[in-house]
Amino acid sequence: MRTKATNIHGPHIDITLGNIANGASLVTKASITFNRLQSLEPCAATGGEVVVSANYQFKIPEDQQPVPPAKPFTLTKAISYEVSANKHDRLMLTVGLPEIPDGNSPWLGVVDVSLEHDGGQQLKIGPIALVDTGANSEFYPDGDTWVIPANPAEGCIEKNLQLVSEVLKTPNVVVAKEVAALDRALRNFKEAPVGQPADGKTSPPRPGPTKNPPAGQPAQDGPPAPAPVDTNVYTLPNGL
Fold it and tell me: Is the peptide bond before 106 cis (omega within 30 degrees of 0)?
């Protein structure tokens, strides 16, 4: 019996698969290619639904850390995930650093996903923009917005906004909701009075790592993006 995955930490790629064939489809390999992996500036001034049936976790290797920006690399994992005939099902890929030192800034990445199924057929998904929660008590995602230090280090907001803007310009990118929220929060902060976030929020105690997969949405004031990965159904062309 399949059960909903729990206690999952790190950015999640939540994929709904549809098998339109008369026979079951077997996914045997999953690959995540990082086209971009870079840390955000910490900004702290000095001083009934289809549930997830399986979760496969990918660890970013030590030689591909986001500081300095990592070179493109691919992570591959052999899996065994079956989608019944004429059914929809969900699988989740979780990706993150082996360890997150206290105070680490969130990282921002752009990835492509490839699922190998049914004798070598390939299903390509992406590119997808993801952002990690990090381990910084003053800069982290909080629901539909981000907590940002009231008095950030000089130039930090601008550097992060430039990085996010570059990511959102990636052709055909699917945007996680945390990335879209970060874009809005940075733009709102920049337009707000000096030293005061646009929504007046101060930095509350940092919550634990996010456990919900990024639903994704295009930034309201950024370039348009297609529907997010976890609201799309990707068809396994078994037997076609």
Answer: no
β-pairing, 174-175 vs 121-131, is parallel
More confident residue, 3 or 194: 194
Q: Using CB atoms within 10 Å of the CB of residue 88, give its burial: 0 to 12 exposed, 13 to 18 middle, 19+ buried.
A: middle
The vertex-195 CA angle with 193 and 200, nearest 5°, equals 75
Cα–Cα distance between 91 and 50 in angstroms, integer?
Answer: 10
**Both tokens of residue 237?**
């062309």
Question: The tokens of 183 are what?
Answer: 């874009």
Instruction: Give the separation between CA 223 and CA 100, rounded to whole angstroms.
Output: 31
DSSP state of 2: -
CA 69 to chain centre: 17
Instruction: List, in sequence order, the alpha helices (H) in the chain.
Output: 156-168, 177-191
CB-based contacts of 177: which residues, under 8 Å, 6+ apart?
A: 144, 214, 215, 216, 217, 228
pLDDT of residue 240: 29
**Rounded distance between C-alpha atoms, residue 158 and residue 163, angstroms:** 9
Q: How confident is the model at residue 188 (pLDDT cuts 50, 70, 90)?
A: very high
Q: Output the pTM of the full model.
A: 0.74
Which residue type occupies 84? S
* Residue 127 pLDDT greater than 50, yes or no: yes
CA 76/CA 34 separation, integer angstroms: 11
Instruction: Specify whether the backbone of 169 is left (phi greater than 0), alpha (psi in -120 to 50) or beta.
Output: alpha
Integer Cα distance of 105 and 219 in angstroms: 21
Q: Would you give the DSSP letter of residue 212?
A: S
Helical axes 156-168 vs 177-191, angle rounded to 10°: 140
